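Handout, page 2. Input:
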Amino acid sequence: MIRPLTPEGRVTVKILRLNDEDRMLERMRLLAIGLYGIKHEV
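Output:
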């Protein structure tokens, strides 16, 4: 779940529907295969 820290962030999350179930599931799938999140380069 994306938790906005500012009023602008809250509006962005709401307008773009970033916390809708389908979007959260897609992020979890991408995270599981390494295509989402922070990449640490060595």
